[in-house]
């Protein structure tokens, strides 16, 4: 048994901080690694020591095995915790850590190798008697072989990256006609995300539940499961809401799924924390999906209902300590639900967002937990995953947990970057979720083909924003002046003299009425707003006699972010809006909709395209995004090259419309 004294966490953000907090509580010295993009990140400052490992791109920093090992040598680490993501399921990394004489806090290399390859994992599970989805996991990767296998399996099928997860390299294919394109896209995405283009096919089980079993094994032959988590609510095959226990679980089904998960772990001589994922159909048949050989993002909901610290268990198992738990010791207590807060735009098919965080206030309260890795003033970069925080709630019942989570989402304030906060609140309020009936089809069934629509700001939202900008300008002016008495604030010799905010939603005029009251005109609407109290970013107001409470953040005097309830809005003077829109181009311009790498471009100058044609693929935040022509016409000048880095708004190419093309 070897006591770990110094632990290097080979990760960043929320993940790194989560591991560090437990390690520090155990008296273990913590070491952070960071890229140039994370030079001032919270995880770097929280650690006892921090070492730079390279530039911002993950391939040159967090995925650079030699750089991580060199950092471990520099700080004298005894062990490395990979967190989740990055190198956490990289067998070569685990092997290199062990060869360097360090403890790898994770499973044996063999387990990572087998379970990290979906094809090998499925073959191993079939041999171990674990129920599996019908499919093709052969070594022959020829397109013809896949087409023949898909015909035999029967459409629809899922194309999946054999070496990865998280929805990357995954496509739902409805017919043989679109299978070749799906294979090409999935293979390209898999190669870029995981360094391997190997694919498998599986029969698509429509509208299942995604239920996973948390297992734990020590070096003394003990393997147990810690119950299940329901992770059915997903977008782009990536989880959004998770809970424990599963709302439709029965004791018999839990026992059967738990035993299957334990057998899966034993089949590869597992050690440490692992998660066996299953699809559960409407008839309560379950099928092995994959095994994640690491701690899961959603592990806190298990901690909340089990009263355990899974990171502590991981470290103790790595030190050689027996689990100290038997299956009969495992008891569920209450219910826990987790909501993943992402920097993304649900109204734009959940595209990742970037920007500077103007304000971050995590929620607090009874039964509420928030794991984050962000702070006010921090930058959300295009280089890493878009998840910023996990907001969780526990209750004696599912109903109590759901009520507490709704309150936590209302209380949390994330301003300055587009997020899914309002979407999360809407999702948990839907009847299907509230009733525990959500499947993997929940988002599609709830919002349909048109997808989620963001609610636009109302006139009173704009009025409040204009008042806040007016007050900010007044404060700045007063600071610049000397000895201005309160009674002269807002005074003008040409009375009444309004301040004007030219928002994208329209012109807003603010007329000070004396004291803390304002008359606000928006088109034909006139509102009376009075500021009742202001404490930091929180303001209590009266709008035409009705109480209102907002949280706000300012960027200079021309831009304000306003949060009312779970919904947040950005208001800027028209000059700032026009300046930003200057790079957006016209309908014939194809632009980068976010920071990223231009993975591929399919047209050249002189080519004819139709509206809706795919013209390029942009890779950003580990996902590939297809860029489509908005108009029909002839490709004019191409301004970018495949492989090049693009900033949001950069012009890629121009399509010149011909007579009759513009309306086609």
Automatic annotation (TrEMBL):
EC number: 6.4.1.2
Residue ranges of domain ATP-grasp in the record: 122-319
SMART domains membership: Biotin_carb_C
Record-annotated Biotin carboxylation domain positions: 3-448
Taxonomic path: Bacteria, Pseudomonadati, Pseudomonadota, Alphaproteobacteria, Maricaulales
Necessary cofactors: biotin
Natural source organism: Hyphobacterium lacteum
Keywords recorded for this protein, A-Z: ATP-binding, Biotin, Ligase, Nucleotide-binding
Descriptive protein name: Acetyl-CoA carboxylase biotin carboxylase subunit
Alphabetized PANTHER family for the sequence: CARBOXYLASE:PYRUVATE/ACETYL-COA/PROPIONYL-COA CARBOXYLASE (PTHR18866), METHYLCROTONOYL-COA CARBOXYLASE SUBUNIT ALPHA, MITOCHONDRIAL-RELATED (PTHR18866:SF33)
UniProt superkingdom: Bacteria
Matching CDD domains: biotinyl_domain
GO terms, molecular function: acetyl-CoA carboxylase activity
Signal peptide: none
Pfam family membership, one: Biotin_carb_N
Keyword Ligase included in the entry's annotation: yes
Domain Lipoyl-binding: 581-656
């Amino acid at each position: 048994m070897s006591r770990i004294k110094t632990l290097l966490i080979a990760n960043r953000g929320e993940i790194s901080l989560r591991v560090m907090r437990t390690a520090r509580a155990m008296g273990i010295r913590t070491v952070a690694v960071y890229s140039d993009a994370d030079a001032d990140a919270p995880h770097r400052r929280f650690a006892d020591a921090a070492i730079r490992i390279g530039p911002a791109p993950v391939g040159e920093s967090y995925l650079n095995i030699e750089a991580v090992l060199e950092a471990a040598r520099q700080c004298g680490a005894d062990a490395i915790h990979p967190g989740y993501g990055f190198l956490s399921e990289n067998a070569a990394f685990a092997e290199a850590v062990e060869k360097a004489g360090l403890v790898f806090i994770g499973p044996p290399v063999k387990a990572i190798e087998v379970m990290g390859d979906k094809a090998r994992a499925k073959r191993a599970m079939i041999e171990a008697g674990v129920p599996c989805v019908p499919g093709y996991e052969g070594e022959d990767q020829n397109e013809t072989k896949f087409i023949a296998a898909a015909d035999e399996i029967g459409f629809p099928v899922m194309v999946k990256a054999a070496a990865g997860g998280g929805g990357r390299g995954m496509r739902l294919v409805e017919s043989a006609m679109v299978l070749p394109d799906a294979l090409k896209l999935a293979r390209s995405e898999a190669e870029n995300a995981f360094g391997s283009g190997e694919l498998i096919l599986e029969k698509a089980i429509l509208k299942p539940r995604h239920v996973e079993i948390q297992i734990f094994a020590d070096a003394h032959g003990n393997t147990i499961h810690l119950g299940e988590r329901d992770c059915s609510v997903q977008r782009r095959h990536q989880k959004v809401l998770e809970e424990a226990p599963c709302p439709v679980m029965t004791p018999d089904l839990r026992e059967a799924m738990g035993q299957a998960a334990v057998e899966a772990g034993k089949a590869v001589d597992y050690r440490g924390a692992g998660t066996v994922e299953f699809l559960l159909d409407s008839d309560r048949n379950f099928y092995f999906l994959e095994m994640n050989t690491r701690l899961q993002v959603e592990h806190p909901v298990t901690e909340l209902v089990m009263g355990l610290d899974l990171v502590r268990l991981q470290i103790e198992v790595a030190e050689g300590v027996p689990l100290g738990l038997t299956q009969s010791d495992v008891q569920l207590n209450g219910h826990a639900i987790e909501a993943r807060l992402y920097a993304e735009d649900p109204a734009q098919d959940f595209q990742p967002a970037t920007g500077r965080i103007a304000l971050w206030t995590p929620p607090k309260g009874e039964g509420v937990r928030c794991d984050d890795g962000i702070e006010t003033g921090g930058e959300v970069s295009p280089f890493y995953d878009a998840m910023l925080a996990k907001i969780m709630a526990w209750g004696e019942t599912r109903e109590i947990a759901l009520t507490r989570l709704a309150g936590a989402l209302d209380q949390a304030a994330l301003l300055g970057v587009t997020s899914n906060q309002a979407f999360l609140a809407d999702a948990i309020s839907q009847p299907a979720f509230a009733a525990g009936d959500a499947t993997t089809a929940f988002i599609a069934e709830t919002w349909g083909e048109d997808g989620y629509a963001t609610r636009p700001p109302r006139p009173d939202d704009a009025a409040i924003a204009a008042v806040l900008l007016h007050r900010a300008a007044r404060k700045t002016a007063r600071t610049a002046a000397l000895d201005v008495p309160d009674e002269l604030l807002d005074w003008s010799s040409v009375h009444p003299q309004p301040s004007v905010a030219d928002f994208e939603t329209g012109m807003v005029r603010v007329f000070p009425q004396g004291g803390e009251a304002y008359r606000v005109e928006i088109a034909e609407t006139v509102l009376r707003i009075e500021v009742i109290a202001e404490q930091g970013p929180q303001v209590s107001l009266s709008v035409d006699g009705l109480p209102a409470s907002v949280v706000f953040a300012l960027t200079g005097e021309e831009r304000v972010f306003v949060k009312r309830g779970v919904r947040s809005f950005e208001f800027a003077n028209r000059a700032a809006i026009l300046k930003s829109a200057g790079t957006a181009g016209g309908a014939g311009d194809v632009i980068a909709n976010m920071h990223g790498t231009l993975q591929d471009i399919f047209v050249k100058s002189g080519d004819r395209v139709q509206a809706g044609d795919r013209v390029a693929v942009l890779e950003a935040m580990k996902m590939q995004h297809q860029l489509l022509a908005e108009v029909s016409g002839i490709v004019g000048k191409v301004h970018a090259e495949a492989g090049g880095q693009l900033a949001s708004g950069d012009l890629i190419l121009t399509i010149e419309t011909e007579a009759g093309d513009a309306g086609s």
